[in-house]
Write a structure and sequence with these properties.
By secondary structure, the chain is of the alpha/beta class. Helix content is 39%, strand content 18%. α2 packs parallel to α4 and α2 packs antiparallel against α5. It binds guanosine-5'-monophosphate (5GP) and manganese (II) ion (MN). Guanosine-5'-monophosphate (5GP) binds next to β11 and β12.
């Protein structure tokens, strides 16, 4: 993919030439998707741009603490001059309808599995979160960080790093977090809201997953279903961050969560300990992610997908165990 010599200048020019800007984040959005969407959207709005912020699944209620949440919609109403994606490693992450409708002008992301599908691609795999890339570069693109955009960006940084503790953390990410605090973000409040507070329904839902927990050698897995969500009165099809709780189990190399979406698709999440890069497994199923946290959406029945993925993951672990641990 050809990139202009001065990427930052090209983006600055694209921003200044566009009047109507569409920003899209990925399906089943997490804190970095929403934080980046709102952080960029608010910064562009403050520059006088007409903006639309879109996520195919809409905004999860847990992000209603962030300024601008009410702007997030499922489909754009206007015809944009410029289309930007945030935190999406491939076009499939936009959702099929959005991916078929729009050409992506600017792709901003930090996943090692990013396919550089934009006309301009800002892909920095050293960044802990897409929000970190935005916090660093928005001023270079003519958009200062404001008291409204700073909390959204810090939410992205805090959530993707699980509270500054993932193996990809850097001193630079902490400096960016400090800058965002100085720009008006309340770290303790955002941290508490995004990573500590949980609804009663979410914890009941975890319970269903915990009762089916299984282990074989250094692999742990479980599943969750629409019936579990219904029984717990949990709204949404996500895992309520269950995978991050499961990955705290000691003496395990890889943890897998199978989330039956109830539409013939299973959302699979992998988490691994340092030394096990699980992106090849996710890519094998047209998914993607990071070396220590990856996912894929696989068509099929739960039992089928579970058996197939467990087998391929066990094969992979065996290979790594035989002296090829990276
Ligand atoms: P999670 O398992 O929490 O959904 O996601 C872990 C990581 O993998 C995140 O960085 C997320 O963006 C990525 N990921 C999850 N599911 C998919 C998928 O279906 N496709 C791609 N390309 N990436 C995914
Ligand atoms: Mn991210």
């Amino acid at each position: 993919m050809n990139q202009p010599v001065n990427l930052d200048q090209s983006i600055r020019d694209a921003f200044s030439q566009a009047g109507k800007i569409l920003v899209i984040a990925h399906v089943r959005p997490d804190g970095d998707a929403i934080g980046s969407l709102l952080g960029l959207g608010l910064a562009l709005k403050e520059k006088g741009k007409q903006i639309e912020l879109v996520v195919e699944d809409g905004l999860p209620a847990s992000f209603k603490n962030l300024t601008g949440w009410e702007m997030v919609r499922k489909w754009p109403a206007m015809k944009p001059d410029l289309v930007i994606t945030v935190d999406c490693s491939d076009l499939g992450r936009l959702g099929d309808d959005l991916a078929n409708e729009f050409q992506v002008d600017i792709n901003i992301d930090h996943h090692i599995t990013n396919l550089n599908f934009g006309r301009l691609n800002v892909v920095d795999t050293r960044a802990v979160a897409t929000a970190e890339i935005l916090a660093t570069r928005l001023p270079m693109w003519g958009c200062p960080i404001s008291p409204a955009s700073a909390p959204a960006l810090l939410t992205g940084l805090v959530t993707d790093s699980l509270g500054f503790r993932t193996s990809n953390m850097t001193p630079q990410a902490l400096r960016v977090a400090a800058d965002l605090m100085e720009a008006g973000a309340d770290l303790p409040e955002l941290y508490q809201h995004a990573l500590v507070n949980r609804s009663f329904e979410a914890v009941k839902y975890w319970g269903a997953g915990f009762t089916r927990l299984q282990r074989m050698d250094r692999l742990v897995w479980t599943s969750i279903t629409p019936a579990d969500r219904q029984a717990a009165h949990y709204n949404g099809r996500d895992d309520a961050d269950m995978i991050n709780i499961l990955s705290a189990i000691n003496d395990i190399d890889v943890t897998i969560l199978f989330n039956d979406q109830g539409n013939g698709h299973i959302k699979v999440s992998w988490r691994s300990q340092p030394g096990f890069d699980i992106t090849p497994l996710a890519l094998q199923y047209n998914g993607g992610g990071h070396p220590a946290a990856a996912g894929a959406d696989i068509e099929g029945a739960l039992a089928e997908v579970e058996a197939e993925v467990l087998q391929s993951t066990r094969c992979y672990l065996k290979l790594k165990g035989n002296g090829q641990k990276s």
